[in-house]
Amino acid sequence: METKRRRGIYELFVKRALDIILAGFAFIILSPLLAIVAIIARFKLGSPVVFKQARPGKDEKIFYLYKYRSMTNETDENGMLLPDSKRLTKFGKFLRKSSIDELLELWNIIVGDMSIVGPRPLSMYYLPHYSDEQRRRQSVRPGLTGLAQVNGRNNLSWDKRFEYDIEYVDNITFINDCKIIINTFFKVLKSADITVRGTHKVKDFGPYTVLKEEGRVTDKMNGMTYSEIGSFFWLDDNMPEATGKGVNWLPAAEDSAFTFSGRAAIEMAVRDILSNGSMNCIYMPSYCCVSMMQSFIDNGVKVKFYEVSRKDGRFKYELPALGAGDAVLVMDYFGLGTDAAAEAISKAHAAGAIVIEDITHSLLADEPACAESDYLVASLRKWFAVPAGGWVAKKSGKLAVKPDQCSDNAVEDKISGMKEKYAYLKGEISDKENFLATQSKFDNDLIHVDRLLEIDSTSYGIIEGTDIEAVKKQRRDNARRLCEGLEELNSEVLELPEMNLEKGTPLFLPVFLAEEDRNSLRKALIEAGMYCPVHWPEVMGANAGVRKNELSLVCDQRYSEGDMDAIVACIKQWYQNR
Fold first, then answer.
1. Quick one: 493 exposed, middle or buried, by C-beta within 10 A (0-12, 13-18, 19+)?
2. pLDDT band at residue 437, thresholds of 50, 70 and 90?
3. Rounded CA separation 461/380 (Å)
């Protein structure tokens, strides 16, 4: 990860040695206490006593953070974990308030995942929400304690917390580390500035950033159909109804299942592979997102990245040497580079590796999948106005595990939020915060949801009743309109992709710009109420590659060609003002 600072002698040569010496000494001295806490936790909270969580470390590389458990694993009738406040016992509150639950992180320090002092390691699901400046906190090892922890801890706002993190990153010295360690000692003794997560209503960072970015109310511009373009789907009064005929347009496979989400679809494929043997490693493209990694991490499969480069409009999948026991996930980039993706799949198949093809980006193409893939997975809610939905298929043989738990209750709040967004677009309500927070909470809850939940009946009915050919036509027409409108800027400030819109159906229309221009354009679009995402901002130790310069223009079936003209006009206005 790039950094804007010079590293001093202390950081380069002394800090790591002191971490090993001090953490090792503390681990030995505190070992009796660690053993006692483990015994009590086993009797009061159950097993396992120690839990591990995937967290991003230096350069966003994922590592396992070790802690004592402080909550039970109680779930509701939908298989979703109960709120923290209901699972947090008195003993758990004591562990958190005293910070004893953090002591096992001494081991993370010894092995090099962490440092004694540094920015705290936060959830890997925060990575997509970091600004470029906030992302600088990941340029150093995370810490057991840090500058933010001695200046307010959880009582600080998110912005202030990150300000302290960046201040620390820019001022790493022996004296500053000593001050932080001493202040931490007294803060812990006094139990100062500690808000125990799960006992207070603190807005999560994901909802916080979404509300901060999309919470503004904009006026219709350039003849837009609605006051905004993009963000998550809504449910309107013309929701497609189930036909009872089933869904027959998905790729052929010997066995398949609808899942609650795309990551649950990956989970089903992972469980099936592991039921038939082991998986040495999963190789994933350098432009994947953290949610795609979750099932592999949860099942103890080592994740490695392979580079996907793009030159002169052509993609190259640089797979490593593969063999039996290896698995590779391949996903063409928004329907671009399909020949290169198919070549990579063929190469992996010939080497005896297991191939999982994520067809989310090519789902509605005339030929969405490669014949040599072993498993197909997709996220359906990226394409349709559905509360949830994913799909998994095994090309040959039966799936060992399929979702079998009803999820209708799990999407009730999401459906309400989608309907509330439609009411906002019609002008019936003026406040966006509630439905944006509902959507963000739902996305966050997907981390913990039981992977055996089926697709909900509302989502399945919508998919079953949707006119797929009409969706394909509208998306293709919209993408064509964008390309025609932006042609004069092609190779001037941005690069349009070469897309076969006779056979391919775009999820988004990706355009490529210099990183500074990309960020500037996205900001201008947001100011106009046009929410065009970047796929994907997470790095996770991989090279940024094609995603460093990509912006995804919205072209889905919710919008007319007039809305595409509005996007073009906004981009041209930005170009004139840049």
1. middle
2. confident
3. 13
Give pLDDT, residue 4. 59
- pLDDT at position 79: 59
Burial string for 11-31 (b: 16+ CB within 10 Å, else e) reads beeebeeebeeebeebbeeee
Residue 391: asked if its preceding bond is cis (omega within 30°), the reply is: no
pLDDT (mean) for 394-402: 97
Backbone angles phi, psi at 63, to 5 degrees: -135, 170
C-alpha distances in Å from residue 98, one per residue of 36, 69, 153, 184 = 15, 14, 13, 12
Q: What's the angle, vertex CA 329, arms to CA 327 and CA 334, rounded to 5?
A: 170
Q: Which residue has the higher pLDDT, 149 or 337?
A: 149
- In angstroms, the CA 296 to CA 271 distance is 10
Q: How far apart are CA 547 and CA 309, in angstroms?
A: 10
d(CA 115, CA 121): 10
Do the Cβ atoms of 257 and 268 come closer than 8 Å?
yes
Instruction: Give CA separation, 509 vs 135, 363, 483, 535, 562, in Å.
Output: 26, 15, 9, 11, 16
Handedness of CA 416, 507, 363, 394 (dihedral sign): negative
Under 8 Å between Cβ of 416 and 458:
no
Look at residue 567 in the predicted model and tell me its pLDDT: 97
Instruction: Give residue-wise pLDDT tens across range 121-143.
Output: 999 999 999 998 999 999 999 99
Query: Is residue 535 a contact partner of residue 550, using CB atoms and an 8 Å limit?
Result: yes
Residues 73-112: tens digit of each pLDDT: 777 665 566 766 778 888 888 888 888 999 999 999 999 9
Closest CA to 19 of 149, 121, 118: 118
Strand order in the sheet with 302-311: 255-259, 390-394, 375-379, 354-358, 326-330, 281-285, 302-311, 314-318
User: How far apart (Å, rounded) are the C-alpha atoms in residues 335 and 338?
Assistant: 6
Name the E strands within 36-83. 50-56, 62-68
**How many C-beta atoms surround the C-beta of residue 309 within 10 A?**
14
Exposed / middle / buried, residue 217 (Cβ in 10 Å: 0-12, 13-18, 19+): exposed
Identify the pLDDT of residue 198. 43
185 φ, ψ to 5°? -55, -45
> Looking at the DSSP assignment, which residues form a beta bridge with residue 315?
310
Dihedral angle sign, alpha carbons of residues 247, 250, 254, 260:
negative
CB 313 within 8 A of CB 499: no
Tokens of 284: 């994933």
Counts for the chain of helices (H) and strands (E), in that order: 19, 16
Distance CA 98, CA 93 (A): 8
pTM of the shown model: 0.91
pLDDT at 352 over 70: yes
Q: Give the separation between CA 237 and CA 230, rounded to whole angstroms.
A: 19
